[in-house]
Each structure stands twice: as C-alpha cells, then as structure tokens.
Amino acid sequence: MPDATETQQSSPLTGQPSETSPAGQPEREFTVPERSQTQMILRRFFQHKLAVASLFVLLGVVLLAFVGGALWKYSYVDITADESVPPSWEHPFGTDAVGHDSFAQVLRGTQLSLGVAVLVALFSTVVGTVWGSIAGYYRGWLDTVMMRIADLVLTLPLLAVAAVLGHNVGGSWWLIAVVIAGLYWAYVARVARGVVLSLREKEFIEASKALGASDMRIILRHLVPNSLGAVIVNATILVAIAILIETALSFLGFGVRPPDTSLGLLVSNAQTAVSTRPWLFYFPGLFIIIIALTINFIGDGLRDAFDPKQTKVRE
Amino acid sequence: MLAYALRRVLISVPILIASTFVVFVITALSKSPISELRAKNPPPPERTIELERQRLNLDQPLLERYWNWLLGLFRGDFGPSVQSRMDIGAEVVDRFLVTFRLIGLAMLVALILAIIVGVISAVRQYSGVDYTSTFLGFLFLSLPSFWFAILLKQAGISFNNAVGSQVLFTIGDSSVYVTGGTWAEFTDILGHMVLPTISLALLSFAAWSRFQRASMLEVLNSDYVRLARAKGLRRGTVMRKHALRTALIPLTTVTALDLGAIISGAVVTEKVFQWQGAGTFLLDAISNSDVYAVQAWLLVSATFIILFNLAADLLYGVLDPRIRYA
C-alpha cells in the first residue's frame, strides 16, 4: 500500500509535478530520478512476462472479435451453401449443419461474451465499491443495514437466481449483464468494505481528520486512491469470472438466445456433435479458455504490481 | 459455543425468509403458466383454466400467496406444482439426496487433492512441481465447467469403446434396472458418479489448492516456524506438527463459502450428464415457471449453505484455540 505522502505527490491535483522535490524538504542527494507511484506499478507489471504476453494475446482476441468480425466475409446470421464442412480456408472454423459459418459465429459470440463480462465487471465494481466504502467508512447502523442487504444477496445461489431472472428478462445481452452484476456486486462490496475498514484506522487518516479534512476529502483523496489497487485487481479477475457465468447461463438456455449467439450457446448447440463435427465444439470452448486464462494472468500480474509485498518471500 | 450457535441460527432465519421472498417475487413475475395453458390447441374450456388458476393460487394477490406458502411450510406443504401430479416436498428431497451424493464426493476429492498439491507446492516453492501446479490451477480456473464436462463425457464414451464394455456411465445418476443385489447397485451408482465427480471437483480443487499454497507459505515464513527449526526440531516434524496444522485452518472457511458455487456447478454438471438431481429439477421448474418448485429448491439449498457455514465457523473455533465464541 502506498502511504499518504507518496500518493499526494503523484496526484496531479496537487499542481506540483512529481519530479521536483516538494517545498520545505532538503535537496535530494541522489541522482536517481524519482518515480511516481503509477510509473512504479507499470514497471513492475511489465516485468511480469506472462502477464504482458497475456495482455497481447487478449488484445489480439479483442481485435479479432470486433475488427475481424466486422471485416469477415460472412456474418453470423448468413447461411452458406456449405453444410457441415470441416475447417478450410473458406471456413476457418468449419460450418454447422444449417450452413452457418462457424468462424463468424465464434467471433460474434466472443463480442457478446466479452461485452457482457466487461459490463458486469464495470457495474458490480462501481456499485460494490461505493456500497462497501460507505458502509466501512461510516460504520454504525448504516453499515449494519447496508451489509445485511449485501448478505441477503450473497445467500442467493448466483447461477440459480440469474437463471430465473434470465428466463424473465429475455435474451438481450446487456440485460443479462445487469442481472449478473445485480447479484455479483455484493461480493465486491464485501472486499471493498474490508479494505476501507483497515485503512480508516491508519494514522494518516487520523492525521487528516485532525487537520480538519472533510469526510468527502478523506474518501476521495485518501481512501479511494489507496484502495484503487485492490479494486482494479478485483475488477480484472471479475471479467474472467463473468465470462464463465455468462457462458454457463447461455449454455443452460437462460442467457443469450438465438438468433443472436454467445460462446456458451455455441457450445450448447454443439454438445451432441462432439464426435461428428468436433470443430463446432472445440473452437468456442477454446475461445472461452483463452479469454479467461489471459485475464486471470493479467490479474495476477496486476496484483503483484500493486502489492509487491504479497509475493516477496522473507529471507 | 452453544449460545453462539443458537444466536447464529436465529439470525439466519430472517435472512432466509427475506431471500425466499425476493426469489418468490422474481419468479412470480415471470411468464404465467396459465398463458401456456391458454395457448394450447384446441383451447381448453374457460372453466378448466379457472380451476387451474385456483389450484395454483394465482387468483390471490402476491403477498397473500407468499404468506400462505410460508404458513404451509409449517404443515410440511410446499405448495402446488404446475405439474399437477408432482408432490414438491417429496420430489425435492429425493432430488437433493441424489445431488448431495455428487456434491459430497466431489468436495471430498477436491479437498484432499487441494491440500496435498497446495502443501507440496508451498514446501517446494518455485520448483517444477510448483510451477506446474500453478499453471494447472490457472487453467482449471479458466475452464468453462460445461465444456469440460462434455469433453469428459466424450472421453468416457471413447474409453468404454476401447475397453469394450460399459465401465463409465455417461448418462443418468443410476441404471433403471440393476440385478445382483446391493453390491451391484452400489457399483452401478459409483460407475455413474466417476465422471460427474471429476468435472465438479476440478474447479474447487483449482481454487482451494491455490489458497492452501498461500496459507502454507504464510505459515512457513512465520517466526514460530523459524524458531522451531532453530531449536533443532527436524524439518519433517516442524512441517507436520507445527506448520500444516495451522495452515489447514483457513481452508475450512473457504470451503464453506464456496458451497454456493459448488451447488451452482452441480446444476451444470447434472444437465450435461442428464442426472435426475436437484439441478435438473431447478432447470425444469424455471422453464415451467413453477414458482413453488423454485422456492422449494432455494429453501433447501439456502438452508444447507447456512448450516454448512455455521458448522465451518464452529469447527474453526475447535481448530484454532485463539478463537473463542462468547
């Protein structure tokens, strides 16, 4: 965790570039250039080779899905004259029994699955963090009420309630994202509350209170920057979790529905064709694994970058 | 401790009731089963529809319906099902007994493997074993469970073809007709359980082995373990008696917290392997807009989750002498 003075120096709001030493402090004797918090985090992240490699692979998949999907000669709804052909140059991922180009369908599925996952991560991170921080900072009856509500959401088995809701709201992809986020934010709120609870007892918070800082200032300038690391790492891993939830939901038939498609739906449609038309089954599954795996690696790299203490072994 | 347990159970009751209410409202707002009846061709007479509406309590306002359901529970009545011949109470118990078989074995397998792998990769940190298990852990965490289950099913079919007899069953939770007494029945059920258990255990194994590794590493780097070594105790003794015992404690909490995810995982596993368990019961109930059946499923699984968490917390107190429940 960065301490308060570092955070203040690196913050653009202080109006002082972080390279110069703040007024009132003795001239530095070292010639090593000072690095801001962000620079240090980025440096540490880029030293994590697996995470950087994963980042490039993930960017490749995203580009392929969104740019490639728009440029590819077939659309996911097109019905071609070729039925059940194995992968070839004409159809890189083969076609299904009706003649849909599987490559176009996988790209479309990736678009939707990624869209849902990012939206889930965004919604539940924002709602959960605000919820947990307010509860943790103010404590008292507000904390009790807010966390009981979160507990209530946590007792609901996620996939089951998401299936009920998904059955109700229909197959639009952003509604599915809202449904999953509506159940997942409580996990984030718990994590955020824990971070804030430990932070609010720290000396620098006490110091700024003694200096007469308002609640708003303490939350925005001290609590938020200091818990940002944990929140970002959590949100990243949440994208991977959300992809798996969405695909499972679509697989069960309560997520994205035909004529639109998602990676889970493609696997579901292909489950009886594993031995006869294996390409229909393997490619969507492979895409889910690649996306989830790279995001998990990136999350791991970010965790190390934000909190180097965690992996360092005491000698 | 008894007082603590009682208080915890009492706190859980309102949470349980509130969560059943939330789900009741959500399910009751979905497509009415009456509209399906109306859509039938030829349309049933108005009188039939009206009787069905009354049978399913759809003529009552929402709050009244919920209240009556809650009162009915005390009489052991789980409410009427859309499928008129089904007794929800008896059915849900049967289905959950099947599912608990799967969940119990999968959790046991996952726990044992996770402890072994987690401890080994912590003790041999940064060795080949550690890197391999870390990578596999990440891979399993990123596997879509339904995809992997289908793959396992396919592998089971190939295996059976290669052996030339049905060793691993890929469909259903048990054979309809088994001859040869109790032993044959037992092996038949076991044969049906192998593949679903592997597929369900894998995800928990991945998460728990990562957790066990972290918890063991923390203990190994602590001062008291270094002191034990400095005193001249043998490495093996320190590992077993001092480190491992402490490192196992946090896993109890994680195991209990993950139960909800495992129950959700069982829904997917049962769907793939076509088990007649609680998971497929839930999926059918949702598709049929069978409000009372969804409620029964939720009630049983939520109660189970709450009790399991309570047991874990009490066990935590037994394992960790620093914790005292007042």
TrEMBL record, chain A:
Top-level taxonomic group: Bacteria
Topology of this chain in the membrane: Multi-pass membrane protein
Composition skew (Polar residues), residue ranges: 1-23
Name of the protein described by the UniProt record: Oligopeptide transport system permease protein OppC
Keywords, comma-separated and alphabetical: Cell inner membrane, Cell membrane, Membrane, Peptide transport, Protein transport, Transmembrane, Transmembrane helix, Transport
CDD domains reported in the protein's UniProt record: TM_PBP2
Protein family: Belongs to the binding-protein-dependent transport system permease family. OppBC subfamily.
Gene3D superfamilies associated with the record: MetI-like (1.10.3720.10)
Pfam families noted in UniProt: BPD_transp_1 (PF00528), OppC_N (PF12911)
Region (Disordered): 1-33
Domain ABC transmembrane type-1: 110-299
Transmembrane segment boundaries: 50-72, 112-137, 149-167, 173-192, 223-245, 279-299
Compartments in which it is found: Cell inner membrane; Cell membrane
Keyword Protein transport (UniProt): yes
UniProtKB/TrEMBL annotation, chain B:
Membrane-spanning ranges: 9-29, 102-123, 135-152, 189-208, 243-268, 296-319
PROSITE patterns xrefs: ABC_TM1
Entries under InterPro entries matching the protein: BPD_transp_1_N, MetI-like, MetI-like_sf
Keywords linked to the UniProt accession: Cell membrane, Membrane, Transmembrane, Transmembrane helix, Transport
Predominant localisation class: membrane
Domain ABC transmembrane type-1 span(s) in chain numbering: 96-316
PANTHER family documented for this protein: DIPEPTIDE TRANSPORT SYSTEM PERMEASE PROTEIN DPPB-RELATED
Record family assignment: Belongs to the binding-protein-dependent transport system permease family.
The name this protein goes by in its record: ABC transporter permease
UniProt organism field: Haloechinothrix salitolerans
Organism placement in taxonomy: Bacteria, Bacillati, Actinomycetota, Actinomycetes, Pseudonocardiales
